[in-house]
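agent: user wants the full assembly modeled, not chains individually. Plan: 1) parse entity lines 2) check alphabet per entity 3) run joint structure prediction 4) return tokens. Steps 1-2 passed, two entities, 696 residues total. Proceeding.
--- entities ---
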Amino acid sequence: MAQLQNDRFLRACRKQKVDRTPIWIMRQAGRYLPEYRAVRAKSDFLTMCKTPELVAEVTLQPIDILGTDAAIIFSDILVIPEAMGMFLEMNEGVGPVFPKPIRNENDFNELKDADPSKDLKYVIDAVELTKKELNGRVPLIGFSGAPWTLLTYMVEGKGSKNFSEVKKLIYNNPKLAHKILDKISDSVINYLNAKIEAGVDAVQIFDTWGGILSQDDFDEFSLQYITKIIAGLKRKDQPVIVFAKGVHSKLRRLAKCGADVLGLDWTMDINKVRERVGDRVALQGNLDPTILYGTQDFIKSRVKKTLEAYGKGSGHIFNLGHGILPDVNPENAIALVKFVHEESKKYH
Amino acid sequence: MAQLQNDRFLRACRKQKVDRTPIWIMRQAGRYLPEYRAVRAKSDFLTMCKTPELVAEVTLQPIDILGTDAAIIFSDILVIPEAMGMFLEMNEGVGPVFPKPIRNENDFNELKDADPSKDLKYVIDAVELTKKELNGRVPLIGFSGAPWTLLTYMVEGKGSKNFSEVKKLIYNNPKLAHKILDKISDSVINYLNAKIEAGVDAVQIFDTWGGILSQDDFDEFSLQYITKIIAGLKRKDQPVIVFAKGVHSKLRRLAKCGADVLGLDWTMDINKVRERVGDRVALQGNLDPTILYGTQDFIKSRVKKTLEAYGKGSGHIFNLGHGILPDVNPENAIALVKFVHEESKKYH
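--- prediction returned ---
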């Protein structure tokens, strides 16, 4: 493998000294880029995910266009449930749908363990190809949904407002919920290990729906499985980032789950979180994604504010507090990366 | 006015001694009750809001059926923007829509100050009629949306996922945003004062969307207007409850906005919040609404847990952490009220 030319992201994950704060953007390979839309226009979403050449192409776009300090392999968190045997529909304008959601023991019995070398080989091939094409320019991140977030989709079957079905499951049949979560966790472990073996330099676990649980329920139905996954990873020195959106509490416990980095959404105060758990983990985030709707002067002022909030020293990976929105002007994303690079030097 | 026969709710708001913890349920006059659906079947939603006899009827239903310790006048937070001159459509299955949302200075100039004695007379009439029909059984709560939450609806025009339009407004034209928020606040003050004059025993301000703002933005675009409203209320001893959903931070500052009670959603730890601000305010909440999907044994166990988390002494008003969901079995809501009444005695 080619030697890494820019290892700021990895160094910051490990809280090692850097010359400036690294930045990457969640969903940086996405619809806001005309170059992405051009690729996407030629194929449907799932075909894109399953075609290593297309994955490599869109994964590299933000490195070329924005100059971010890390690439993240283009994919979707729902490829895991699909690899576990669920039929996944990606409906234009509606979002992903599982027409046969998991609701009972019988549904559970039809789930299989995802075999990454077979069912998810396209991701592994994409990682290898992307690593080759990146040629050491920046590190490559692989990701997975957290078991709780995957369970939510698998049980609801589609987007939800109140998450009634998955809540019914955990409150009425916690035993079955735990069985499914356990099975998902095993598939996630195998999936992330296969990505690590294929060459990703770091992994991120997305718990998009951790924040809909009360604090004790988060412990029971989400955090323990994230912890299990991290313990099951066969990694050399690849850092693990956990992004639990909307999870404001239990930060100390979250910081002990084995992750090297905690991702923060924009409603958290990165300064206060650093005070609480910054001795233990690096922090990633946390600009409000809608800040990119503002003028470049305004974006710059908020970049400065976020850098100042984290303060001096390593351990900060700049990012948005959630994925970049599809109607953002790409010029503003380019400016964001430039501002972080320019303004962060004095903190190191 | 008839003497109050059950003042537990008001006493708890003031942190005075009670013999058991009072409970009411957000959206307790709602679709989960067949009795409500029977009334609703005969008229559309807005007509119901504007017909004092129907408002009084559904407002009293949960008092008769569940035995809650407070009534809350049936209405909708969007009657304020409507009274400010916006055309409001209530579309079955889609939710409320403002076909002409506020996006610029011209739109703003068309807004007028709501005159409660004229534009919202139907609410005032409904309060008076309901007070009469309640005949002192339990206190009556009046409510309003917080200015930030109202602004969100007025600018987005409909339900939103990313709140792009209102964020564009506050980031690109904060001056205009503040002008609108100020105008909304004035209308809310007049509206709540008219309700107080008409006889409500307490008021609740709902900031449903406070949690989509970063912490400093919440201060600037929400909290200062809530504070302004409370300062503008002409009240004798009517307590004010502020429910800012998803606002986990700045609890100390929130506790200083003039409110007597803070409402907590289910993702907060009522025990820890009491430790932080319980000397200053009473706390309302905070059972996960989806707990009511569970068995009655399970509901009872979670009721006990919440009561135990708040602990001994007054200052706790039991409630869900958000509105009761439309597909909840009413028997479970009845059981919830019973369990709170039975299990809470030992804490007083």
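agent: reporting back. Chain A has one domain: 8-347. Chain A touches chain B at residues 162-164, 167-168, 171-172, 211-215, 217, 246, 248-249, 266-269, 272, 288-291, 293-295, 298, 321, 325, 327 (CB under 8 Å).
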